[in-house]
Amino acid sequence: MDSTHELKPLRSLVHSALVAVTRSVNTLANEDLRFQRTVHTSVATRLDQNTDRILKLADGVLKSASRFTAQRRPKLDDVDDVEIQWKGVVDVIDTLFEKSDTCLDEYTGLVKKKDAPAAESGSDLKRAKPTNTGLAWSLRRANILKPQSNFEKKPQDPESGPWKPQVTAKPHAQVPLAASFVTFVNGGGHSQYKHPYEHEIASMRYPAEVYQRCEPTKYPPIDHTQAVWVDTFEDVLEMLEELKKAKEIAIDLEHHDYRSYNGLLSLMQISTRDKDWIIDTLVPWRHKLEVLNEVFADPKIVKVLHGGFMDIIWLQRDLGLYVVGLFDTFYASDTLGYARKSLAFLLKKFVDFDADKKYQLADWRIRPLPQEMLYYARSDTHFLLYIYDMVRNELVQLASQNDGTMNPIDRVLEKSKEVSLQRYEHPICDAETGVGNRGWFNTLVKSPALYNGEQFAVYKSVYKWRDDLARKEDESPTFFMSQQAINEIARILPTDRMALWNLLGPNAHILRSRVDQLFEVVQAARRNGVNGPTKLQFFTQFSSETGPTQQQQKPAAEGDNKPLEIEELKSSRSQLWGDMAINSALDGTSKPRPMDEKDLIPLYSFDFGAVREELPDGPTPSPHDAVEKAPGVRAVFEDEGFTLRTGKKRKASSESTKSSSAKAGSTPPETDESGRTVLPDASISDSESSNTEALEGDTDLPSSSGKNAGQAEAKRAKHEVEVLRNKMGATASQQLKAQAGSEDHSQLQAQAQAHDEVPFDYANASSVLRAPSKGDHNNNDGSGGKGGKGKGKRGGKAAFDPYAKKSGDAPQGARKLNYERAGRTATFKK
User: Which UniProt keywords apply (predicted)?
Assistant: First the structure.
């Protein structure tokens, strides 16, 4: 920006130009351009010309902005590229705006311009050496010749079968080498070789010094000593003789996996108490490093590593080395409960050394190695034996405070043995199910994207195409195409080669000659995936119990792309409770308990017209048996309809019992020879008549007059049935006589039959919501009777009214304040 110009006039000029452009755009948006293009050919031509011009201007702006912001420029060749490359466009513009804000703040003096950082004064021996040469190349993606092409012993072909251990001899063996080459079938159904030192590692006993407290041995100054570079086999043999004399050695590895499909073990660092070695593992005769098994497999020498899970795998795969007697300081940190468990944390805690981890992902194939990278590699093992002494002493102290549980040192050693028993296997990628350590299953199951049939088929095909290409060229799959690029191709489904090219990202230049092949793969997958399963349908085929390794994908029938039903999304097992059944009655494990007489609740209804015969002679049956055996009694167990009542209290049946007892007199009942109670006819008749009178005098029962006469008579018949049940102890003949002598029997029978045959009239039924009070039974007009409003004819208590407290002396709402007025409030005052 020219300092001679003032900021305010320039800002006004830019603002006016932007306003004019915005108004023009809004004017065009109000016109039906599609209609105008169809009607007028000249308009269509002008629109196409202006579109090309604006597109070129936008591409030029992005090109200029990308140089200023150091962002990758998205190339806009046609209008569709704007949508496809929208994310890249937004990144460039956002970065441009941020830098513009910074420049304006610095120009106005709001923020002081940052000066270049000054060089550090002095030297700190406890810090990693800074880079003096200023590496101009990318430490991770150095363009160098592949060293694996010069190896004397080529890596095994993954397609030729299971990976076989690269050992020709077995030092310190308890089981011969020939007997160690045994195959088995792993959990994925693939044949694999067992660990050659499996028996030796499982049965070994660590030296006694591991369980004892010792005085930590101080490391030599790292800046006053030099590491020995080993790149000849003679140097390896000389180093081996010195390693055999040590009781503990520290080991660390540097690996490269970007320009190789399987990866390359590029460097090995070994340290004793007083010396460091750095071994070049990219030499053509690297397979001869197997001689180090004389130390690595010696159980008397403790091998100290930090986080050696992958180190064990790399040693087996590339050098044929196996570690017996491992002590992993990572698990020591975990057992001691440190805040962090990284090697950098241990270096800072015990040595006060700041490790520069920017070289951790460097390209360790570079030869010769820069001094900074050598210094970093050496520091990982130079202090490790001292750290081993410190954490071992803390474990011994923790073991002395142990309350009888597992010894902390034993726990660290058991975990270290588990790491040593890890085996290398060939990388597998199943094209259909996605299983394997190089498959897409574990990657896609974590992705939130929901692909339809076409998208899911494209994802699988592109993933398989990338993996096959990486195997053929011995490159990492991410070297050709990132995982993000595969996701974008499957999501967008590009319809032309240019759109596909734009989705490949920064690696597009690598696939320049293979774009046509990749485009054909995408189109073929789209055609095959029209009727294929969606991502959701595919994952629902694998239950959490069997997993993808035990089930095969079933071809989807035509029309399987329809949305899944809710039942299809239910899991067969609980993720919280596992295989435990939620309800034993649902999984069929519970057995029904046999029912006894206590569980039976009989419900009866009587047909008075059918009671014509006497019960058979014999002992007095129980009420339940008598009712079942009586030919005129019908047991009803099905559900019957019911009517909601008004909730009034019923008088106790004891009043009817007292009334009947008073009329029957105090004469005790007689008994016959069999011990049954014999009631005279008069007593039965009097009892029934007294119960009938009690029924008529009960104000709880509605009278038979008025609108609800049918319900009242039915209730009276039901009450009569209750009375009859209480008398089932008498003989059937006496009961029949008593019923025959009753003048009301025929009337009750007719009412009962009428109640059974006539359906319930809902239209004329009394209201349940506004039920009458106690005093309203005899007043159909709802006047309330003599007792006045809400009172029965006997002056009973008024029925509960839940809305009574809404008025009267009930608590009222807060009254309005004096300054509140209805109508317009002060908000609208001017």
Answer: Exonuclease, Exosome, Hydrolase, Nuclease, Nucleus, rRNA processing
